[in-house]
Amino acid sequence: MHPPRMSAPSCIVPPLEQLIIRPHIVPFLPNFHGMESENPYAHIKEFEEVCNTFREGGASIDLMRLKLFPFTLKDKAKIWLNSLRPRSIRNWVDLQAEFLKKFFPTHRTNGLKRQISNFSAQENEKFYECWERYMEAINACPHYGFDTWLLVSYFYDGMSSSMKQILETMCGGDFMSKNPEEAMDFLSYVSEVSRGWDEPNSREMGRMKAPVNPKGGMYMLSEDMDMKAKVATMARRLEELELKKMHEVQAISETQAHVMPCTIC
Fold first, then answer.
1. Fewest CB within 10 angstroms: 7, 198, 215, 226, which?
2. Are 55 and 64 in contact (CB under 8 A)?
């Protein structure tokens, strides 16, 4: 005689609302194994994208997530889910919170926050490479809790002298006077336009001489780099002027439309 099979109640309270799970959805779901190298936030984001794609009719999206999420968990992650107290999860918010608490603990958050706050450019790293690496660090910890001005400050402090000179040249030396949102946008812009530039490496920077009255201890850019930076700056300002002109024309047109007399009356 075999002992009777006993199964512990699920940690998820069965919802009153019914939802039919289409089998074709399951293969599209991402998997999470509970490994240290996996990012729980990235997993949830990808999972929610799949749910949003296959949502049907008036079905509750949170109910759909609650029902499908267990299918994404494998190995250690599945064992963790089965170890939760029976009937302790009542909705998607509860399940998501427990999942993040388990697989993104405080010490991991603190480690990623240190990567952001202590960020610095690597040797011979290009501006766009440095910026992309910084954004990867930010995206890896979406709950970092830093204000935008701090994010700008951390990156600026970690840039090399040549990067700072490129930045200041392109914004006419007034980068630090920008508001935080403008500064983040400008850093992203500089990253894009400087992709094809031949930036000086650390060895070349060491051979460069500082100007007579160096600004903030920065180095002078080569003529080629300086010209590219200035051309990019002019192009951006022309775009801003064109956009401003378009807005002004649009505003005038809307005003005229409001004051135009009604020919019928």
1. 7
2. yes
Quote the longest CA-to-CA distance of the chain.
95
Per-residue pLDDT tens over the stretch 68-88:
999 999 999 999 999 999 999
- Alpha-carbon distances of 264 from 91, 239, 254, 258, 261, rounded to whole Å: 58, 41, 20, 15, 9
pLDDT greater than 50 at residue 219: no
Alpha helices for the chain (secondary structure H):
40-54, 61-72, 75-83, 92-103, 106-117, 127-139, 148-158, 161-170, 180-193, 202-207, 223-259
pTM > 0.70: yes or no? no
Q: What are the CA-CA distances from residue 27 to residues 20, 40, 53, 72, 86 (Å)?
A: 16, 19, 13, 10, 27
**φ, ψ (nearest 5 deg) of residue 32:** -135, 125
Question: Is residue 147's pLDDT more than 50?
Answer: yes
Q: Is 220 helix (H, G, I), strand (E, B) or coil?
A: coil
3-state secondary structure of 163: helix
d(Cα 138, Cα 140) in Å, to the nearest integer? 5
Identify residue 42 by its one-letter amino acid code: A
Return the domain boundaries, the chain: 23-104, 107-196
Contact 187, 158 (CB under 8 A): no
Mean pLDDT, the chain, integer: 80
Average pLDDT over residues 122-141: 93
Distance separating alpha carbons of residues 9 and 70, to the nearest angstrom: 14
